[in-house]
Every structure is written in C-alpha cells, then in structure tokens.
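sanity check this record:
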Amino acid sequence: MENSYGYGRALAAWLIEKNYIVKDVNPALSYAYQKSVPQYKKNDSYDAQCVARVAINELNKLPDAMLEDMYWTLSKLTNHRANLKTHQIRLKNQLHEQVCVAYPS
C-alpha cells in the first residue's frame, strides 16, 4: 500500500487488525515506475498500476507497514502547527496592509 501513513492509514490499520500483511510502498518507487515509460501518464488508475508493479517486483524488499500512533500523532501536530503559523503570518500581513490603506502617511 502506498501512503500507509497518510490517507491510507485507516485502511492499513484495519488490514493489520485483521492479521493481513501490509507492505509500505514508498511513493518515490512508484513515481520511478511512472517516469520509466516513454509517455508519462498521470491518473489514479495508472498510479495504482505503478504501485502494484512495485509491490510485485519488490515484495521481499518492501518494509511492513508500521502504524506507530506516537509518530503519526506527532507528524499531524507538527503539520497543524506549521499550518497555524502560515495562517498567522497571512493574517498579520493582511492587518498591515489594512493599516497602510487607512493611514498612508
């Protein structure tokens, strides 16, 4: 499964809970398969086909998906903090712009 730490995490967790083996496919590997063909295609079905090729050809080398909640939670909190910081900067810049419009001198 590609992206078992992002949107696919819930599915990976469910499969692991049901005692299925879930392999983690690095998105860089599937991207390399996409770029290896003469005509580059970008759509969901072709992305899935590239992930399947990686899974078939590299099955023994792929790591098992490890759903460690501590790291996932930390990652989510870090991303949330970065988004808040970006939003804070945007709001401050908007305020400065409004102050400059209201008091040009």
